[in-house]
Amino acid sequence: MSDSLTIHGGRVLTFDGMVESDLGSEDGLICRPVPGRADVIIDAEGLLVAPGLIDLQTNGGFGHDFTADPSAIWEVGRQLPVTGVTSFLPTVITSPADQRVAALQSIAAGPPPQYRGARVLGLHFEGPMLAPERRGTHEPAHLRLPDLDVVDGWGRAEGIRLVTLAPELAGAEVVIRALLDRGVVVAAGHSAATYQEGVAALESGLTHGTHLFNGMPPLAPREPGLVGALLEDPDASVAVIVDGIHLHPATIRFVRACKPAHRVVLITDAMAGMGAGPGAYALGDLVITVDETSARSAHGVLAGTILTLDQAVRNYVAFTGCPQAEALSAASANPASVIGESARGRIEAGKVADLIILNDQLAVQATIIDGVLAHYVAGFADRVAGRKTV
After folding, report:
1. Domains, in order of start, for the chain
2. Which member of 233, 243, 269, 370 is catalytic?
3. Are residues 23 and 347 in contact, defined by beta-carbon separation less than 8 angstroms?
4. What is the band of 113 on the pLDDT scale with cuts at 50, 70, 90?
5. pTM score
6. Is 39 a known active-site residue?
7. Is the pLDDT score of 147 beyond 70?
């Protein structure tokens, strides 16, 4: 059972905007605070309380790669609360089938005893059904055409929440419909789809675009391509990498101008070098070189990022001038909506008490998962009365 918790004095990000309000949690769920009952009391005076961040695409971090070593999912998850992430989808890129099986086995086994980290909501399989000419750093030897045999055993019940594929490939429509029937969200990515092929995929049930613009043909005057199809459809959500490298800030402003605010999703696409410093790291079968700003293959191709999701939020505000609430929602409520996590991503009574506390610069001061403190920065302890559980 989780501690009961009260947060008082903060500005709380609700569906209606920022509200000065006290907030409580009981048994891991958000509730009205009950005076005198809280095991933990947090003074949030002068701070912002927001939903915990949700990353739909992260390949690893802190020196670990999920494709090469799926057992590392829990070690990365243990450290993610430092970045404000309270739940995530570990991403397995194009690789032999046994790597995907190993990842499924790892999440099925569950976290180690005494685990206090970000919750794994399921897996994101990025590949192997990708367009060879738009594969990026995905290993071509492991690419496959869409086929029901490839996705045999892929379903929400088995732990798969999101699949990225190239919808123009032969057999993709059948695979998309099969995955949808099994409760899996299907996204377009690493695709050479034309505009018409993109529209057809959206009509067949595909609902999301993986790292928009990256791994796709450019938006052109006489062929809008997949980018155009995703931007035009008001019901399609698009994931963007807001590191200032994968997308120019003006491109990000363009996306924001085209899409309803609730259809923009911030992701990291982080790889093992995130949080680990410059050096050489695994990404599937490849060795990727990380410097102070980016991760690249031996041929200079961008290979994931070293971006954290809290930094993506700050960048989105800086690049677009959007309100802080909009940027925070793009990394919490919006990704929750994409994968149907209705109990997360908003601060409302009865929803999971996954919360972050930030200062005015949107730097994470504390992270709460299931109503329990999972991380706080130096000095924040002075704001906490009762059991400090980290």
Report:
1. 5-50+346-386 (2.30.40.10), 53-338 (3.20.20.140)
2. 269
3. yes
4. very high
5. 0.97
6. no
7. yes
